[in-house]
Amino acid sequence: MITSVKGMRDLLPPDTRVWNRLEETARNVFSLYGYDEIRTPVLEPTELFVRSVGEASDIVHKEMYAFTDRGGRDVSLRPENTAGVARAYVEHQMPQAGGVKKLYYVGPQYRYERPQKGRYREFRQIGAEVLGAADPATDAELLVMLFDLFTRLGFTGLSVSLNSVGSEESRPAYVEALRAYLAAHEGTMGEDDRRRLRDNPLRVLDTKDPALAAALAGAPRVLDHLDPESKAHHEELLALLDAAGIPYRVEPRLVRGLDYYTRTVFEVTAQGLGAQDALLGGGRYDRLVSDLGGPRTPGIGFAIGEDRLVDVLPEPFRRAAIEGFAPVAVVAIDPADRAAALALAGELRSAGVAVDLDPAGKGPGHALKNAAKRGCRTAVLVGEKERQSGVVVVKDLVERSQREVPIGDLPRTLKGETP
Ligand code: HAM
C-alpha cells in the first residue's frame, strides 16, 4: 500500500464541506472589504524566501522543501505566501498602477517541521495583504476585517496579541541592547539559540528553551526602543482598535519568526489547539517590496492557519456546513424506470434541487440504504405506478416517514416550500 507523504494528509468528505464553507465565508468577507484574489505558484525561486523571510529564520534555515530542478534552478515549495504576493506585485508592475492593492489568497504551504497535532508539512493558509498603505488606519481595518470573519464563523472570546518591532532605522539599536543582555546567557544556550543570537538576536525571543525563556523576562523590550514615528503609529493603532471595539492585548515579547516585519506585528491564539495554538499571524512589512527590487511600498497582512481554524470552528458553523450538503436521492424502482428517473433528476436540477441519482440500480432497498450513507435526507421513488399517476413517493430518510407528492409540486416541496 502506498500512503501519503509524512506530515501531509488527505482532506475527505464530509470534512471538505466544512473547508469549502469556511473558504466561501472568507472570500465573501474579504470582498466586502474590497479585496481581490491572487493565486501565485506553489514553487518559487529559493532566493525569494532567503531575501524576505530571512536566512536566519527557522523557516528558511531548516524547514524548506528546497531542491534544484531539472534545469538547474534552485527552487522551493513556498513555506508562506506573503513573499510570493510581494514578488508578483513587483513583477507585474502593480506599484506603477498606483493606489492601494488589497489581495487575498487561499492555498497550500509547505514546511519541513516535525509533524504533530496542528502542525503539518503541507498545510493551508487563508491570507490577506494590503500593499501601498502606511497609515495605522490600514492596520486597524485589517484587524476589523479579521474579527468580522471570526464573528461570522461564530467565534466569541478571541483576542489579538499585538506588538511593534519598530522600523529598520530603530531596530539596530534595540538588537544591540538585546545582544548585550543575551551575551550573559550565551554559555547556557543550546546550539539553536546560539545560532539565533549570532544571526539575529530577535529570534532568541522565540526560544523553545524554558530556562532561557524565563531569563528573557528581564530582557530589554522593543517597545521601549521605538523611534518616534513607530511609537506614534503603534499608539494610534491602539486608539483605533479601542474605538472599533477589537479585543487586543499588547505583548511586548511578540516578535514573530519571519524577518520582513516592521512596526505592527500580531498573532491570535486559540484554546483547544494544544501546543500549536497560533491560529494566525501577521504584521507590517514596509521594506519587503523594496528588498525584492520594487519601489518603496509599505505593506501589511495576515495568514490564518486553515487546518488549525477548522479544528476549533464553532459547532453550529460546522454542523450547518455538514448538513447543508443533502442532495435528494432519486431512485428507479425497476431497470425499466431508469430513463424516467434520469429525466426527473434533470428537471429537479434545472429547478435548483441537488440530486444524487442512484448509481447502482440494485433496487430501492439497496439504494435507500446507500443514499442515507451518502448524506441524502430525502429520496424520491420512481416506478411504473408513479409514471402512470404523476404522483411520486417522497421518503424522509431521517424521520423514516413518507408521503405522496404530485410530480409538478416536487421542486417546491423538496426545497422546503410546501405547496
Ligand atoms: P506564520 O506565522 O509563519 O506567518 O504562519 C501563519 C499561520 O500559519 C500560523 O499562525 C499557523 O496557524 C499556520 N501554520 C504555520 N505553520 C504551520 C504548520 N506547519 N502546520 C499547520 N499550520 C501552520 C506567515 O506565514 C506570514 N506569511 C503571515 C503574514 C501575512 N504576515 C504578513 N502577511
Write the layout of secondary structure elements.
Elements lengths: L14 H18 L3 E2 L5 E3 H9 L3 H5 L3 E3 L5 E4 L4 H10 L9 E10 L11 E10 L4 H18 L6 E5 L6 H13 L7 H9 L10 H6 L12 H17 L3 E3 L13 E6 L8 E7 L3 H4 L7 E7 H7 L2 H9 L4 E5 L5 H13 L4 E3 L6 H10 L4 E5 L1 H6 L1 E6 L4 E6 L3 H5 L5
Parallel strand pairs: 1-5, 7-8, 12-13, 12-14
Antiparallel strand pairs: 2-4, 3-4, 5-6, 6-11, 7-9, 9-10, 10-11, 14-15, 15-16
Helix pairs in contact: 1-5, 1-12, 5-9
Histidyl-adenosine monophosphate binds next to strand 6, strand 10, strand 11 and helix 11.
Please provide a written account of the structure:
The protein is built from 16 helices and 16 strands. With 419 residues, it is of the alpha+beta class. It has 2 domains: 15-170 and 226-319, BirA Bifunctional Protein, domain 2 (2-Layer Sandwich); 326-414, 3-Layer(aba) Sandwich (Rossmann fold), CATH 3.40.50. It has an 8-stranded mixed β-sheet, sandwiched between helices. A 5-stranded mixed β-sheet has the order 13-12-14-15-16, with helices on both faces. Helix 13 (338-350) links the parallel strand 12 and strand 13 (355-357). The longest helix has 18 residues, at 15-32. The two termini are 53 Å apart. The model has no long low-confidence stretch (mean pLDDT 94). Histidyl-adenosine monophosphate binds at residues 80-82, 111, 113, 118-120, 123, 125, 127, 129, 257-258, 278-283, 301-303, 305, 307-308.
